[in-house]
Amino acid sequence: MSFQDLLTAVALLLIIEGVIPFLNPPGLRRALLTISQLSDGVLRFGGLTCMVLGCLLLYAVR
Asked: What mean pLDDT is predicted for residues 40-54?
């Protein structure tokens, strides 16, 4: 993996992260309010799930 690949991944992350606030700011506010009220355990499980799915997708693509 080159430095250019890493920068490409970061750029794509920024693009994807920017789509929701651009298209639906009120929906994002509601979602963030809901997320802020979740327990730490639920947030950790969500984070772990995202990491595992990301690793599986990366493995499948590469």
From this structure: 97
